[in-house]
Amino acid sequence: MTYSAWRIFTEGLTGNRGWKRAWRDPEPRSDYEVVIVGAGGHGLASAFCLAKEFGITNVAVLEKGWLGSGNIGRNTTIIRSNYLLPGNEPFYEFSLKLWERLEEDTNYNSMVSQRGIINLFHNDAGRDAARRRGNAMMLAGADAVLLDREGVRAQYPFLDFDNARFPIRGGLYQPRAGTARHDAVAWGYARGADRHGVDIVQNCEVTGFRIEAGRCTGVETTRGTIGAKKVAVCVAGSSSRVMAMAGLRLPIESHVLQAFVSEGLKPVIPGVITYGAGHFYISQSDKGGLVFGGDIDGYNSYAQRGNLPMVEDVCEGGMALMPMIGRAKLLRMWGGVMDMSMDGSPIIDKTPVDGLYFNGGWCYGGFKATPASGWCTAHLLATGAPHPTAAAYRLDRFRSGRVIDETGAGAQPNRH
Amino acid sequence: MIIPHPLLGPRDASEFVYLGDASLIDRPAPEAGIDAFHDYVYQRDNPAGAHRELWFHEHGDRSWLVVTRNTLTHEILAVELAKDVARRRGRGR
Ligand SMILES: Cc1cc2nc3c(=O)[nH]c(=O)nc-3n(C[C@H](O)[C@H](O)[C@H](O)COP(=O)(O)OP(=O)(O)OC[C@H]3O[C@@H](n4cnc5c(N)ncnc54)[C@H](O)[C@@H]3O)c2cc1C
């Protein structure tokens, strides 16, 4: 069933009795060409692209809980391509271009909203860094505008421009960046993949890999053994746990990141603001809630909840940037488990086990990567070669020294 | 999180700086080779459950601690001075 305005109109006239489930709930078969572990954004996008772009439809996505129960349903929904390094920026710009056509591709309203993002700076060094980043972005075909103080003020007159510690001197603006409805991205990809014949099997936890003579030939699950010619693991925060079952150690630590939503307010924040110096970023959802967050808590965690010192830190950052939010009530807060890599950049690659592929290390920024990650993972699975924009995302780059370290923090995951 | 410091008693975790897996104490010998150093610098077990990890009491007595903590619940199971752990492993300090 294709969704359209006409469909809504006719369903409205007939009591909305014709809507069907958005995807099937199939029993897993005993064999597939490709099995994808994890029905988060990346697993679902990979399955969708395998089917739609590469014609491989004999595919299953196995999910231990319900689809969208991981980070895809927990993030703060920011999409952008304002990276600096050549290994990253072309990939994220490819992703942003795919966001721009996502809803046509999946026939699903994922509420992609290009409302713009501003990264604030507070001194000359910050302006130089912003200018350099903007130039790197434009070299990769992205858009970037350097705003001075008055340029920022025109959009956000209510910021504390004369903050004693971090006065606002300007910002790097990416107009094409914005937000998307995170759950609807998972649902759109799930429905799209299902419509191409992909089996999405929920409540099916992968508990082991079938590895024969160095080759992965399938997975053990709570719903039986499932054979596959190729297996791709896309489990984000669970990467180390799942890959350990195949005997692999990863350059990854799992950390908790918290996010916050206020009560619904009238529209006040038109785009996305990031305040790196204050460890704070914010946007406003279409329902009116202020959606904001800051740094990861900073210690290994699989708990999906954080601690109070970070709550205080984030709220202090918010108050320093825009004192007017002081009276808004916090409605909800939650945490998600981040697969923090050793250089802060992701991995999309084959592994030493034949037929076993790995997608992970997305840190706190994998939502924006979802469309390109799906495309590049599908490309690798279908052709055996990395997609040009993801060629740097190798698992062995730490051994060869080709790390992609945007922050220059070194092998210290809680500093990225 | 409250970390029971072996010398100072219960201290708030926000007084500490977190480094990571306590295996960082076992730096390979200089001649151990590239694979040993690659694994030491970049590879982590990253377990869900008991995790031995290094915390530095920056806003306190500036000692390094080895904290055993459950990464699923954040419960702290044991705390030792890193100095004692390193000495037990045959290190001079
Ligand atoms: C609070 C927060 C804010 C964030 N904000 C942003 C943001 O603004 N912008 C941005 O770009 N990114 C953001 N991120 C990061 C982004 O959400 C993640 O990088 C991204 O969602 C990870 O990929 P995924 O969607 O595939 O992961 P997930 O949705 O976590 O998918 C992994 C799936 O694997 C499943 N799984 C695990 N183990 C098994 C197993 N053994 N068998 C079967 N299935 C298994 C899990 O149940 C899960 O559903 C944020 C994250 C958090 C937590």
From TrEMBL, chain A:
<dbReference type="InterPro" id="IPR001763">
    <property type="entry name" value="Rhodanese-like_dom"/>
</dbReference>
<keyword id="KW-0560">Oxidoreductase</keyword>
<dbReference type="InterPro" id="IPR006076">
    <property type="entry name" value="FAD-dep_OxRdtase"/>
</dbReference>
<keyword id="KW-0285">Flavoprotein</keyword>
<keyword id="KW-0963">Cytoplasm</keyword>
<dbReference type="GO" id="GO:0005737">
    <property type="term" value="C:cytoplasm"/>
</dbReference>
<dbReference type="GO" id="GO:0000166">
    <property type="term" value="F:nucleotide binding"/>
</dbReference>
<keyword id="KW-0547">Nucleotide-binding</keyword>
<protein>
    <recommendedName>
        <fullName>Sarcosine oxidase subunit beta</fullName>
        <ecNumber>1.5.3.24</ecNumber>
    </recommendedName>
</protein>
<keyword id="KW-0288">FMN</keyword>
<keyword id="KW-0274">FAD</keyword>
<dbReference type="InterPro" id="IPR006278">
    <property type="entry name" value="SoxB"/>
</dbReference>
<dbReference type="Pfam" id="PF01266">
    <property type="entry name" value="DAO"/>
</dbReference>
<dbReference type="GO" id="GO:0046653">
    <property type="term" value="P:tetrahydrofolate metabolic process"/>
</dbReference>
<dbReference type="GO" id="GO:0008115">
    <property type="term" value="F:sarcosine oxidase activity"/>
</dbReference>
<comment type="similarity">
    <text>Belongs to the SoxB family.</text>
</comment>
<dbReference type="InterPro" id="IPR036188">
    <property type="entry name" value="FAD/NAD-bd_sf"/>
</dbReference>
<feature type="domain" description="Rhodanese">
    <location>
        <begin position="33"/>
        <end position="78"/>
    </location>
</feature>
TrEMBL record, chain B:
<dbReference type="InterPro" id="IPR038561">
    <property type="entry name" value="SoxD_sf"/>
</dbReference>
<protein>
    <submittedName>
        <fullName>Sarcosine oxidase subunit delta</fullName>
    </submittedName>
</protein>
<dbReference type="GO" id="GO:0046653">
    <property type="term" value="P:tetrahydrofolate metabolic process"/>
</dbReference>
<dbReference type="InterPro" id="IPR006279">
    <property type="entry name" value="SoxD"/>
</dbReference>
<dbReference type="GO" id="GO:0008115">
    <property type="term" value="F:sarcosine oxidase activity"/>
</dbReference>
<dbReference type="Pfam" id="PF04267">
    <property type="entry name" value="SoxD"/>
</dbReference>
